[in-house]
Amino acid sequence: MKIGLIGTGRIGAFHAETLRDSAGVDAVVVADADPARARVLAKKLGVDASADVRSLFAGGLDGVVITAATSAHAALIHQALDAGVPVFCEKPVALDIPSTIGVVERARSDSVPVQIGFQRRFDQGYRAARQALQAGELGWIHTLRAITSDAVPPPADYIPTSGGLFRDCGIHDFDVMRWLTGREVVSVHAFGANRGASFFRNADDIDSYVATLRFDDDMLATVTATRYNGAGHDVRLEVCGSAGARFVGLDDRSPMPTAEPRISWQRLPHTPPTWNGSTTPTSPSCRPSSTLPPAERTAHAPRRRRSKPSISLKPVTAPGAPGRR
Ligand SMILES: NC(=O)c1ccc[n+]([C@@H]2O[C@H](COP(=O)([O-])OP(=O)(O)OC[C@H]3O[C@@H](n4cnc5c(N)ncnc54)[C@H](O)[C@@H]3O)[C@@H](O)[C@H]2O)c1
User: Fold this and answer.
1) Lowest-confidence pick of 49-63, 228-242, 251-265, 280-294
2) CATH assignment of 121-248?
3) For the chain, what is the largest distance between any 2 Cα atoms, rounded to a whole number of angstroms?
4) Which atom of ligand 1 is nearest to the CA of 118?
5) By the number of CB atoms within 10 A of the CB, which of 7, 56, 216, 267 ranks highest?
């Protein structure tokens, strides 16, 4: 297959490399509104670059991956469907509701497949929680708690194109809660705040929010997000029901240091993800690990992969005994 990729920024570079290494993909051709950026990535990965999006489609494609800035998604999806090319597009579909509905209606009436990048639907933890709910193991859900906490903010120049914290980050939580429960939201209350860098405010954005949701079966949910989680990258969904619960995203790397002196929360070192491979802080609250005290530095050391993540919550046998780290 010959796959085109449009948008060679951070996530585009990631997807292009995955495509290049995927079985069944014979050729990858990349394009960007900035042709120089496309050429640089193509050279780095050893794939081809097109001068622009029009010539990318003109060259004939078996599929296209859209990883351009959010504001370009809707038009590019329509362009792909005009060309009869199956599309995978990163979230969100569009910046506003009318454009989103326009794409959904077009995709419904077209036989060409369109998929949007809501990857949590394919994550084992979310799938297991959904199965448990559908099997009746959780009873009725009284509370959903969704958390998306980035350790460090993205670069300032990304924020004006991002669509804002709700569309950029919260969208994953809003999507997966509906997908997991099969219910629709009937009311929402939300507060947002900007206590971090002023570039959020300057782009009419926030860096943290709390939202409360009521679903059509009276299930209640809270959703929180922040760009500044000093403890580390933390993405969880807590599905709490009358008969049981499942906690998605909870493992021994979860950045949840307990304050309880007699409890040792066994966890692997946690590393906040970086943007463009940089650990440069954009706020005083996000310091590179080299500037942290030794204890915190350990908590920010690189993650080690483990085949089987395990969790243990162990009482320490004697006061003062060393807790496991
Ligand atoms: N699913 C996820 O978890 C996830 C994660 C990261 C990013 N994303 C989404 O991916 C998209 C890109 O994010 P990013 O962080 O890579 O941004 P980025 O700013 O690093 O890159 C965007 C690229 O798109 C290019 N571009 C803009 N308009 C274009 C157009 N009309 N035609 C062709 N190229 C165009 C820009 O020149 C730039 O190279 C965003 O919509 C974002 O929401 C999704």
Assistant:
1) 280-294
2) 3.30.360.10
3) 71
4) 1
5) 7
User: Is the CB of 32 within 6 Å of ligand 1?
Assistant: yes
Residue limits of CATH 3.40.50.720 in the chain: 2-117
Tell which residue, 77, 129, 130, 80, has the closest CA to residue 104: 77
Could you tell me if the CB of 68 is within 6 A of ligand 1?
Answer: yes
* 2-117: in CATH 3.40.50.720: yes
CA of 45 to the centre of ligand 1 (A): 18
pLDDT of residue 312: 35
Kindly state the percentage of the chain with pLDDT values over 90.
77
In ligand 1, the atom with minimum distance to the C-alpha of 154 is 15
Strand order in the sheet with 245-248: 185-193, 208-215, 220-226, 141-149, 234-241, 245-248
Of all atoms in ligand 1, which is nearest to the CA of residue 12? 16
Q: Which residues of the chain form CATH 3.30.360.10?
A: 121-248
State the pTM of this model: 0.83
Mutate to test the pocket of ligand 1, among 5, 15, 67, 167 (most ligand atoms within 8 A of CB): 67
pLDDT at 95 over 60: yes
Mean pLDDT computed over 208-218: 98
| Least confidently predicted of 94-103, 149-158, 256-265 | 256-265
Q: How far is the CA of 268 from the centre of ligand 1 (A)?
A: 31
